Structures are given as structure tokens and as C-alpha cells.
Amino acid sequence: MDFVGSLREYLGLLLRLIGILAIIHIVQAQDQLVIEWFISLDCGLPANKLSPYKETGTGLWFSSVESFIQSGKTGRIKENPEGYAKPYETLRYFPDGIRNCYDLSVEKGRKYLIKDSFVYGNYDGNDIDPVFDLYLGPNHWAEIDLRRVNGTREEILHVPTSNSLQFCLVKTGTTTPLISTLELRPMGNDTYIIKSGSLKHFFSVIS
């Protein structure tokens, strides 16, 4: 092979290598962007506690809710607190008002998995399990009925139609709404194809 042929082959290999490195860089940048959009909130974390902190069981970093909501008060469960991971030992409850909302920054048109958990644990000593509703913006999501279980978790796939999203707890009777954790996860475009709105929620029990 002459010099010109060798040079062309070398340049071809070099261009392919540059292309591969560029693809790797783009994928890494996208992964980093996804990580930055992750939100894991310990809704009952007191203001004087370390935030964020790493939950040892899952490796997730949980933050306080101070920049997401101003209403509500914090409490600590009294029944079997040692049986729960740290984010579920505390909670945020809402004795005032009918509707209390978290204001979340999102990317319009992107698919998100929204996960929230609720543990009553007789934090108020009244031994009255609450019942209340969840809303995403103006849309009803689910009824939370803690009379049936010790704790519960709800999940939903949602595509926001703007760059902001309100997650709301709504009082429907005499009991007080509460929440333990709230998580927001951006999902890949190939995960359950939905153009807008939400995909029916999933339900599980926190034992």
C-alpha cells in the first residue's frame, strides 16, 4: 500500500474514532441531565437536619422540601419507627387549608415517573387513619385511604404540558392529609408511549 493509501486509511480510522467518542460524550451528557432532573424529597425532614442526605438502603439522595412548598408541618411516626427506612420515619401534614401543593419544575413534553409514599404511624397520637385525595394540577389522581394499610405508595407516568407541575394533597373529610416522600424521575422516550397526560397509577403497600 502506498503512502497516500495508508494516509487515507489512517484518516478514516481517526474519523470513526472521533465519531464514537462524540456519541459517548452525548450519551454521558444526556445521562447527567437525567440525573440532575431527579427529585427525591423527604417531606418530613426538619429544617435543622442535613439536606440532602444519602439513604443507605437505596443509595438515593433525599432533600428537604423547603424550596417546593411553604405550607404544612412536620411530624414523626410513633408506631414502629425502627421498622421503616429514614425517609418514612417523618412526614409532612397539612392541618390548614383544603388544598396544599408542591410546585415542581419539569420539562414540557418529557415523560416522568412520579412516586409518593404515605405512612401515618399515629404521629399525632389520635389513632385516626386519614383519607384524602391526590391531584396533579387540576386532575384527580388517586384517593389515599390509610385505614386499610400501615402505609401506601402511589406511582404514575405523566407527561406535563408545561414546564411546571403542581402535586396537590386535598382534604376531603375531617382527617388531615399527609405525605412521607415525593420522587420525580425523568423516563426514556421508549417507556410506555403516551403523548400527554398520565398513565394509570400503580399501587403498592409499605409494610
UniProtKB/TrEMBL annotation:
Q: Which InterPro entries match?
A: Malectin-like_Carb-bd_dom
Localization: Membrane
Keywords for this entry?
Membrane, Signal, Transmembrane, Transmembrane helix
Question: Which Pfam families does the entry mention?
Answer: Malectin_like
Q: Which GO cellular component terms are attached? A: membrane
Malectin-like domain residues: 41-203
Q: Does the keyword Transmembrane helix apply?
A: yes
Bilayer topology annotation: Single-pass membrane protein
Q: What is its main location?
A: membrane
Designated name of the protein = Malectin-like domain-containing protein
Q: Which organism is this entry from?
A: Brassica campestris
